[in-house]
Amino acid sequence: MRHVVLGAMLALACLSTLPVRAAGAVRESFELRVPVAPAPFAVEGRDLLVYEVHLTNFSRQPLAPRAVEVLDAASGVVLERFEGPRLRSRLAPIAPAGDAADPASLPPGARRVLYLELAVPPGTAPAALRHRIGYAEAGGEGAETFVVEGAVTAIRARAAALGPPLRGGPWAAVYGPEWERGHRRVFYAAEGRATLPGRLAIDWFRLDDAGRLAPDGAAAPQQAWGYGEDVLAVADATVVATRDDYPEAGADGPPAKRALADAAGNHVVLRLDDGRHVFYEHLAPGSVRVDPGERVAAGAVLGALGSTGDSRRAHLHFHVADSPSPLGGEGLPFELARFQLLGRLAAIEALGTAGWEPLEPGAGALRQRERPAPNVVLAFPAGTAEAGAPAQP
């Protein structure tokens, strides 16, 4: 009975505090749209849903979102609420706006993207989500708040876990969902529709035990610890695209002007049997060992880690998408079958210049069927299970 009462109290606590729109009241406001339905993936004991809601102002006055609620579409229970700084940090224009633009409001005809990361207990993601936006006409804190609901999206099934893209370690799994120019928030409209290929991309940097990327005084990408490391197929797959002729970046990084099509540098794209596409970018010149149309097994060597294309330090860019196009696909979630968590970077600004923080003694370090958390340091144990196979301790 105690658990029933606590459950009821939690359900009441999650009820919306946004006003309910009066019956018959009709206002022009936002179009709400979720372009890519999320799928759950595990990160350190939680399931995450990472996706975006696009808000476009179709009214004739500036509108200011005040609060956003994410609801279970079936029960109406509020799963998460964003307001104040938590909302403002996730609401951004398609491209960086000028200093005069107010990021908290949308002029008529403007679009903002709401970047959401929703955490739920393992295995509890609902079948679908609905979104409720509380907003006011821009220009004053005392303005009346109105409500619009929409952007219903189904939750997709969890995909099979992948094997390791690299061997050994330590490797830093570098990404940050809040970074303005990180992969998570960089749209492309190169093929007739806006896509977010790097929605869930990870950049892999090899470290030494002192947290350095290369020996002291090293400047060239070829001197980095990770340079030349084998890049591995994460599952049985078919090679659909390769490039192997892009020159290495110099000590000062890539040239200031570079064609958009060259951003990936040398690369390999695999098509998995479940239809997902896996991207390995910035590979070393002349290192690619496979050809389009070739069938590869999990663990096969595809090429070598380098620093080509849009790369200033030797690393592997890795992401999964729904298309073989580097700029025209939508980034998809993925989990890794098995890795050994070693520690965390204290601050991303110190990458390569300061030591990383090891796990506390006794902390559980073996992770299975998870995606690495942002900026952790890990290793891939020898004999890591192949994608989709049960990992053995």
TrEMBL record:
Residues 1-22 form the signal peptide. Keywords: Hydrolase, Signal. Pfam families: Peptidase_M23. Its EC number is 3.4.-.-. One of its GO terms (molecular function) is hydrolase activity. Residues 227-321 form the M23ase beta-sheet core domain. The keyword Iron does not apply. InterPro entries: Cell_wall_metabolism_enzyme (IPR050570), Dup_hybrid_motif (IPR011055), M23ase_b-sheet_dom (IPR016047). The keyword Signal applies. This is M23 family metallopeptidase.
